[in-house]
Structure formats: structure tokens, C-alpha cells
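Re-run with default settings, no changes from the original entry. Doing this only to confirm the output is reproducible before filing.
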Amino acid sequence: MDNAELLKELRIGRHQREDHGGAGARWPWIIGALVVVLLLVGAGGWFWLGQRALPVQVAQAVSLSADRDAGAVLQATGYVTARRQATVSAQITGTLTAVLIEEGDRVVEGQVLARLDDSAYKAGLETARAQAAAARALVTQYQAQLSQHEHDRQRLDALVVQGLVSKQAAEQARTLVDSTRAQLAAQRKQAAAAEAQAQQAQVMFDYTVVRAPFSGVVTTKDAQVGEIISPLSAGGGFTRTGVGTIVDMDSLEVDVDVNEAYIGRVKPEMPAEAVLDAYPDWKIPAHVIAIVPTADRGKATIKVRVALEKKDPRVVPEMGVRVSFLEQQAKHEAATAPSGVLVPAKAIVQRNGHAVVFVVDGGQARERQVNPAAQSYGDLRLLPSGVNPGDRVVVAPDAALHDGSKVQIQPGKS
């Protein structure tokens, strides 16, 4: 029953006035009815006001670090690249019998990555070793013969002095010694050649094992067991030219293209900050390594190499990156500036003797106690804690606003 119907029920008819006989007897009833009506109206108004959403204006809290690009003299985009990267292949042609890597594996220098069929090379190595052993045996034989011939020559020389043998026999003995010595020298050369062939066979045999040329991370696996691998490209596409690709993560840097009209602003060793597209809130200290002395005619840009001063597993090759080139003073200020978020000064109000802000969350205002820093940035104030970047704070909150109040953001304000 609404207020109008209640007043209608309390109306006194003419016959009721006549029955009660006078105005004096009717006044207490009239006054009581009016009091009841006023109480009902007040309670309904209070209930309606308590449930009504208060219109508010909001502003987004901004990270202080996001405002530091003001010190950048130039910005450019590029990609993360590796200065040390290799597609590992075998130095001989052969069939893979084992592939011991997968994408993402970390390998160390000299680690075995794959093996080739080594049966033919093993047989060649054993043959070369046998030939080298035979050559060494002949050297030993000629050394023994030479020693015997020298002893015979000495005896014949003594007999010649005594006149027991002819001088011709002594000369023949000396000739035999010289001949054996020459044969020994030749055999030593042949033994050395056989040793060299054995070493060559050993090298070819070692080529059947593919090892990591340096420590790094495997980024691609390009071959499987049973495939033929060769250091040379073969027609038809049936021969692989690599087992996999290894990247030295410690050699990662950034290559950016700078418009040639602004390249004069960039100097070697200039400080910079790199921001990966995948992590927009993460600023990586960097500096310029070198300006590559050549221009891209089509894009009218010049490549600049930028070194990352902090290594992190999150940085991987081919990531998109934005580089801000800084002045020395700007870099120092960015390194020493305090952390926190910036909010409008009007968003900070006093409640019960404390500085607070109201953050809009799910259509309600949540009161958060804050301790503003002494620094001011125009009409913005720094809040070291209590508010996160991206939070929406109420600007100039009304005195009736309290923790848990329903709010409605005015259109066009965020």
C-alpha cells in the first residue's frame, strides 16, 4: 500500500464527524495519522538514497616508470638477435644412427649431438692402423739388419789389416751397410706416411660423431634418425644439411633500424632502455654497441647494435623490442627515481585523520589508506604503495562516499 492509499484510508467521512460529535475529539486521530505517513515517507527515502549509485569521475593510476620515456632523445624498433648462432652439421656425408637433442635442450661445448653410421670409416681406420703397424715392423727389421751389417764390416776391416781377407770383401761390406742404412731411412718415411694415413682415418672416423661447437640452447632440430646428412646441399631435398641450430644466449643483443634522418642523435656507448613487446612493463638497461656504417636504401634506415646489460631467460632471439636512446642525465634520473604510481592530487582526501583514495572495483568504491610521497609531478601525486598501476581512482570524491558505496562512472571518464 503506497502513501496515497494510506491517506485515503485515514480520511474521515461526514457521518464519522457527526458520530464523534466535534472537532476536538477528532484531532488526536488526525495527528497520529500524519506522523505515521511522515515516518513511512522518510524510511522509504532513506532506503532509496542508500541503494542509489553515486556518479563519480575516475582517473587511471599510472606507473611512475611509464613516465620516464620523457628523457629519451629517440625511439626505434627492432629485434633480438644472437651474435653467436650456428646450424650444426657433420663434415662428412652419412646416415644418422642417433640424434641426441631436442628443442630447448641446453648443451655444453663438445657434447655429442648426433652419430652417423661409422662402419665404413671404422674399417678404414683399422686398415690404416694395420698398415702403419706393418711399416713400423719393417723399420725395426731394417734397424736390425743395419746393426748386423755394421758388425760384419768392422770384422772384415780388422781381417783386411791382418791380410786374411781381400780389400774387395771389406768394400762390399761397407756398401751393404750404406745400402741398408738407405733402406732404413726410406722405410722410416713410409712408416711416417702410414702413421699419417692412420691419423687421417681417425679424423674421418671422429667426423661420424657430431659435437656442439660451443655452449648454448638448441632452438631447432632439423634431422631424424635414418636420414642422410651432408655438409653440402644435395638435389631432390632428401639430404639434410644440418642436425640442429644452437644459440649462445649470452651473445644476445638488439638490432634496431633508425631512420637515417635521426641517426645523428645516436652515439656509440650511448645509454638506452629496451622494452620487449612480450613484457611491456619490463625495462632492460642497455647501451649502444656500434652504428653499422651502411644504410638500407629501400627503408632509408641504418642498423644500430644495442647491447643488453642484463641477461634473462625471458629474452629469446627474434623477439620484437622497442629501444629508447637516453641521455646520460636521463639514465641517471631513471635509475634513481622512486617507484610507485601517479594519481591526481584531487583523488587524495582525508578520512578519520588519514589520507585515503577510493578505487573503483566491481561497481563499488573501495577505500585504501595511502601515504603520499613528498614529490609532486604537476597536478599528480606519487603514491609509493596502496594503489597498483591501472587502478581507477575516484577524482574529488564526495563527502558521502564511503567504503563499499555503489558508484557509477560518468560517461567519458575513465
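The longest helix spans residues 119-162. Residues 16-23, 43-50, 66-70 have pLDDT under 50 and may be disordered.
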